[in-house]
Amino acid sequence: MTKITIISGSNRAQATTTQLCSYLQQVLESKGCLVTLLDLYVMPLPLYSPDVVCEDANLAILRNSLNEADGIILATPEYHGAPSGVLKNALDFVGSAQFSGKVVLSVSSTGGPVGVSSLQQLQTIVRSVHGINCPEWISIGGENRTFTPEGEPVNEKLRERALHTLQYFVKMVEAFSPEL
């Protein structure tokens, strides 16, 4: 069974980033994947410092989930043309031990039309920790950040885009994971 870890890097209640992550989780689970969704709003991490050895319980959950994952989805709101500080802080606690050789899908939610800057920066981080960037990505913006009470995006084209991207992502994960 394909194991996917999704990290929602928003630090806000009812964040559209997390709503999108929940939708992606539903779709992946319907396709037979085992999905762990880590919401950094409800699972806060301490501030990273390379000078401090951190034994935080939430950090242990993050590392273990990433270690066990065959594929990873990183999701962020876009703040000032960059990923959230909350997600960057989480990524500072991990590295190539968790990402090396794993396919990573980058996802963003932004108040503007599309969050390209944050997605490009996430892909740079993924390369730096020896992950494999999925060439597809998902970015929602403006009025496309609306979800039904059941958790699906209201915009049909966004749903189609998400389904296409997730199908591509899972095929990549299966192709690159030696245990699948």
From TrEMBL:
Xref: SUPFAM superfamilies: Flavoproteins (SSF52218)
Ranges in a coiled coil: none
Family stated for the protein in its record: Belongs to the azoreductase type 2 family.
Residue stretches spanning the membrane: none
Name of the protein: NAD(P)H-dependent oxidoreductase
Species, as recorded: Paenibacillus agricola
PANTHER family in the record: CHROMATE REDUCTASE (PTHR30543), NAD(P)H-DEPENDENT FMN REDUCTASE LOT6 (PTHR30543:SF21)
Pfam families: FMN_red
Domain NADPH-dependent FMN reductase-like: 2-141
